[in-house]
Amino acid sequence: MTMDGPKAQDHFETLAGHLPESLQPWVANPPPIVERALEITVAGGNAMWAIWFVAFVMWALCFNVWISMVLAGMRRRSKARMRRLISDPTSARGTVATLIGDASRAGDPDGASLTFDEYRAFELEALDGQLRLVKVCIGAAPLLGLFGTVTGMLATFAALAEGTRGEQTMGAIAAGISEALITTEAGLVVALPGLFGHYFLSRKLAGFRDFLSTAEGMCRMAIRQRHAFR
After folding, report:
1. Could you give the CA distance from residue 200 to residue 178 in angstroms, rounded to a whole number?
2. Alpha-carbon distance 91 to 84, whole Å?
3. How far apart are CA 57 and CA 133, in angstroms?
4. Which of 1, 21, 28, 83 is 20 to 30 A from residue 12's alpha carbon, by CA?
């Protein structure tokens, strides 16, 4: 596969012209890895920009889900820790611990369940929606790669039909084949890591849901026991 280096350099120079003077030298003479990435993008045609956009959206959503879970403390707690929170709600620290403490103070078991249901609706449903969009991106990346494959092959056949088998024709054929192969590979490269990322986050969220169900059951039982001893 041949990369159109001069064409990629033209992109850098054009971009540099629209930036402040302090940034122009860095953009006009980018690091080798950045230059190589743009060369591949240019050789892959317009479909590559769509693939990179899908990749950006996908990983931005994955990072947002992960950081939201970390900041909210969405992780399992031991049963001993949950018993302490239920027996002494004032010791709760953090969103999830406070949730368990509030549920344990409910007047009846259904009130405790309502507290957990509200948390699931307002906190977890938003994360589920983002993971569904991640799944859409995972499916879209290979399809965009296939679209680039088709356009690359069409360019190749057009060069064969219109060319005179000279050097210019062979260059057009090589560019079309390069576009077809690069976009196919890029679509798979974006989709496969995204698939593993989606699986990891989905499992973490499912495990936290199981933890909430356990905590809800313990809160309901504790409330029934308090009522029984009154």
Report:
1. 34
2. 8
3. 9
4. 1
| CB 186, CB 44: distance < 8 Å | yes
Q: Tell me which residue has tokens 């699931």.
A: 120
Place of tokens 């909430």: 212
**The residue to which tokens 């909210």 are assigned:** 72
Domain locations in the chain? 1-44, 46-228
Q: Region 95-107: what's the mean pLDDT?
A: 80
**What contacts 78, CB < 8 A, 6 or more positions away?**
none
The structure's pTM equals 0.76
pLDDT at 66 over 70: yes
Rounded Cα distance, 123 and 8, in Å:
44
> Mind giving me the DSSP string for 120-163?
IIIIIHHHHHHHHHHHHHHHHHHHHHHHHHHHHHHHHHHHHHH-
Banded pLDDT at 196 (limits 50, 70, 90): very high
pLDDT above 80 for 31: no
